[in-house]
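Write out the 3D structure for:
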Amino acid sequence: MYNRTRYVTNVQIAASCLTGKYVQLVTVPVQFLVQFQKKRQERICHTCDSHLKRGSMPSIAVPNKIELPHNPAELLELNVLEQQLIARIVPFAKNSDMPKGQQRAVHGAVVCVPSEVEKTVNGLPRPTCYR
C-alpha cells in the first residue's frame, strides 16, 4: 500500500509507474469496530517505493517493459480456500511472528508440493448422495 503524495521529487516518473493496473483485494479493519471490509488497493514493493522517493526510475517498473501477467477477473474474487483448491503448487512454510512489530518471518525451508488440479476440478461440486 502506498500514498502518492510521498513521491514529490519527480512526479512524472511516479505517474508513469503508478498506473493503477495492479490492484489487489485486501481486507482492511473498520475503525472502532471488530468488522473488516474488503477494498481494492494498489500495492507497491519496497524497491519501487525507495526509488520513487528518491525521484529515480525503478529498474523493475512497468515503463521498462517489465509487467506481471494479467489476472482474470474471476480469479480476483476467490477466497483463500478457493485459491488453494485450484493452485498448481501449494507452498508449505513455517511462519512465525517477529519479536517487535507486526511482521512475520519464514523459518526453515519452504516446500512446494505440486497438486493435481484436474482431479480437484473434476471432483467439484461433489455429488450429494442420499441413501
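Residues 7 and 53 are 5 Å apart (CA to CA).
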